[in-house]
Amino acid sequence: MVVFGFTRGIEIPTIPISRTSKAPPHSIAADHIAPSSTYFCPLATSARPSTLDPGDLSSYTKLETTSSEFVLSIAYAHSSCNQFRVKISRTDPTICAFAKGQVLSSDPETQAYIMNELGPDTFQLRVDGAERLVLDKPERFDASLCAYEFDFRLNTPGVVWLSGLLLFKGFGGFDEINTGSPECLPFLSPILSSKPNSFDPLLLTPAPPSSPSACTGPEPIIGTYVTSALPSILYPPEALPVGKKSLTAGVYDFVPSDCTFQHDGLRFKDHSSCLKEDRGVYFTGDSNARVMYDALLQRLEGFDSILQFSEDMPRKSANLKNLHMEFRSDSTLEYTGNVDCAFVRDFSSFVVSSGVPQTCDSASVTAYFAKLLSIFATLPILVKECLPPDAPPPVFVYLNTPAFWYPQDVGLDPFECRTPPRLEYWNKIAGKIARESGWSLVDVFSLTKPFAIETRNLDGDLCAI
After folding, report:
1. pTM summary value
2. Residue 227: strand pairing partners
3. What are 367-413's pLDDT values in tens digits?
């Protein structure tokens, strides 16, 4: 894996300006920012801007890179703070033309997606500072120029630093035909300097007031990871796992878009209202469901600390006043697909998680979606038939597959194929099926992707078996 990113931190101008302000001289962005009376700056609590207007972009500024294979450049939005485009181009564009003939999937739609939207190279770009955001799928791929464009539409004004990695070449990020045993690649951290280019603050534009409603409903909750408030940093000052020197908790806080968390299950709140009525929650599937079970149990038991450990057990159960909770390990969903009334009538909520197959072959994917379709369709019918007429409406929740820091998994399992672009693609399809089947969706992949690189630092050496 090649660190193609920046040899020093690049400070992105994400502070709004007014008509009377002047761009500071000698700034990396000074020649590309035009003062505007309608300068727009979104809020962390607002939905992320959906598009980046190409007509509003400055000319490109070339950035330094440690790789001779790529040219990196950046363009800033004139009338919106927090928005910029990073373009990565191969110095030899014929490489993309040569790759056109490869067959990567037996499914024509998937083949077209890989060729037309991903390209042969897989990158990961990350910003830190005022906001943490990770992009590993280009907004646009131009095969003729062998160029990849990544649009950053940040939700918080302030200084951010940009870094990038080249994860795969030659369609190694998404290939379900040419499977094999890739070498264990060395891990290289992004290069960031403690002395980034300076950009003087400009006149601030007041932010509009916001009064979001409570976060409810079956759709995934989206949001922004912003620099933590002081209480989050001070309590608790935990490194994960205990004993590690690097702090990986409390640095960023998740802020939901256009809504706020107002329920009593939140940290530091009185959880007694969650335990008043007779309810049962059933978690089943893989380790993702097990961790969710343990995290919920720890919070409702009154612990305000961060979950440090989730023991791998085939079954778990707990009773908290009127709430019964149960977890059953069933990664293939074989048991869940054969439950009966005697079992399901004890529960009012069902949480299912079954990860995208780690093998690359199309047959595994076909079997995976066949099982999901069966569970999404048959479990609600069975529950409706088994519950008494006066029972509250049951809740069905699907957890998609969390993000992985891929090079770590290569060292642990040479046939591990849960790469970032592959997970994003299949998770999107699984989530669409879940919502069409009437299930609520928790987009675990999007929530964990910004911090997947930190999980690599918690699991020992890269190539350890």
Report:
1. 0.82
2. 252
3. 889 999 999 999 999 999 998 888 889 999 999 999 877 654 444 44
Q: Which residues contact 65 (CB under 8 A, 6 or more apart)?
A: 4, 5, 6, 7, 71, 72
- Strand extents, DSSP E, 177-322: 213-214, 223-227, 252-256, 259-260, 279-285, 315-320
DSSP state of 48: P
Cα–Cα distances in angstroms (integers) from residue 220 to residues 438, 445, 450, in the given order: 13, 11, 16
> How far is the C-alpha of 357 from the C-alpha of 401, rounded, in Å?
10
What are φ and ψ of residue 395, in 5° steps?
Answer: -115, 135
CA atoms within 13 A on the CB side of 404: 25
DSSP 8-state class, residue 274: G
Answer whether residue 297 shows pLDDT above 50. yes
DSSP state string for 7-43: SS--B---S---TT--PPTT-TTGGG----TT-B---
Check residue 68 and give left, alpha or beta (phi > 0: left; psi -120 to 50: alpha): alpha
The answer to whether 66 and 2 are in contact (CB under 8 A) is yes
- Looking at every residue in the chain, the average pLDDT score rounds to 77
Q: Give pLDDT, residue 328.
A: 95
**In contact, 54 and 41? CB cutoff 8 Å:** no
Strand boundaries in 170-314, DSSP class E: 213-214, 223-227, 252-256, 259-260, 279-285
What letter represents residue 323's amino acid? L
Amino acid type, 272:
S
Contact 405, 456 (CB under 8 A): yes
For residue 317, pLDDT beyond 50? yes
pLDDT in tens, 119-156: 999 888 988 888 899 999 999 999 999 999 999 998 88
Q: How far apart are the first and last CA of the chain?
A: 20
Output the pLDDT for position 14: 34
Phi-psi label, residue 289: left if phi above 0, alpha if psi -120 to 50, beta otherwise:
alpha
Q: How far apart are CA 388 and CA 5, in angstroms?
A: 59
Residues 6+ apart with CB under 8 A from 159: 11, 12, 14, 129, 130, 196, 199
Instruction: With CA atoms as reference, report the closest residue to 66 among 152, 10, 8.
Output: 8
Q: Is the peptide bond before 236 cis (omega within 30 degrees of 0)?
A: yes
The 3-class SS string of 140-151 reads EEECCCCEEEEE
